Amino acid sequence: MSYFLRCISCGEEYEPTETRYTCDHCGDLYGTLEVIYDYKKIKLEKNFEPKGSIFQFKELIPATSHTAIDHSIGGTPLYKFKGLLGFEELMIKFDGISFSSSYKDRASIIAVNKAIELGFDTIYCASTGNAASSLALTAAGTSLRTVIFVPSTIPKGKLAQLLVAGAEVIPINSTYDEVFDLSLKIGREKGWYCRHSAINPYLLEGKKTGAYEILIQNDYKVPDYCFVGVGDGTVISGICKGFKEFYELGLVDRIPKVIGVQSEKAATVKHVFDNGKPYTPIIETVNSVADSISVGNPRDVIKACKYVESTGGYFITVRDEEIIHSVKEMARLTGIFSEPAGATPYAGVNKMVEAGQLKETDSVCIVVTGNGLKDTDAVRSSTEVKTYDIDEVKALFL
Ligand SMILES: Cc1ncc(COP(=O)(O)O)c(C=O)c1O
Ligand SMILES: [Zn+2]
User: Fold this and answer.
1) Structural domain for 353, as ranges
2) How many structural domains compose the chain?
3) Which of 124, 170, 255, 282 has the fewest CB atoms inside 10 Å of its own CB, making it the most exposed?
């Protein structure tokens, strides 16, 4: 397979060596790299498996399969709900039922395979929780030692996944943004393989596959809009890249507008986008109930802004109350139980419907990125129930 790496800011091209993560001239934040393939040489037919793993896209995935679970990553369902939120049909791509119950598996499996391929013995990441639990579980059956740095406020479900998987977990009494910086310093010092999607360019190559699958599972018909929750900005960048590549390869005739949705209490990527070009990263203090996307120093902000702009999309915000309401409404109306970050794009669609910005005939896809069982505390007010004595129940029903 032939590909090279290209800086998102200055366009400098690099050979894909094992230690090349970001651009020498532009640094970690501006100098994230894109994996660029020789698209003219890649000839693909519309014959992908709707439920196949991400490894079916072998011409577009810069890693080969080394683990027992590779072929169960990807191929998550695309559900189509008639009449939901007033649409003739509303699509939901549900990655909450992925291997570790989040979208992050698509990236982790690339990192794990790359680390094995390149002969590393240790892999590490910093995470709000899902990237960590995904890495811990996907690496569990391999030879890799896994070191995970997380904020100590990580929801219990995600912490349990880390601990049972046997990862070395370092919960830190600080924000995700500080945990990220410290982990990078330690990882670089120690020479461990890096599973940070905004640093390691290959991880986005896993994250783009959700977009391929949306197109495949919708019979190559392109939605008008695709809504995605945004924290660091790597998931949305990946999804944009996936749509753009299938277009570039002639498999579809257009690209959906990709809309990034953030909490009003953690909207740094939106602020950078709205400030206009040249996109200039900022750091903000954030605190959203959607812990996975509560990011004040987003690491993939340049890519996210450039990619979303290239689809004709933009960023919107919703209130935390709307996010929690969406977790419950989506579960009630579709059976999909999402964690708050995964329900954020649903809240965004709802808001645009109420504002008359979407029509019932629009073709809309929501990407639900995480499972509600990881963070049941977020809906605690709905899960506190009255208990009954046996006699009370008899009196009620018999
Ligand atoms: C469930 C969920 N949704 C969305 C995101 C957003 O991804 P990103 O930080 O790449 O923008 C995350 C990231 O942790 C997540 O865990
Ligand atoms: Zn550069």
Assistant:
1) 68-101+205-381
2) 1
3) 282
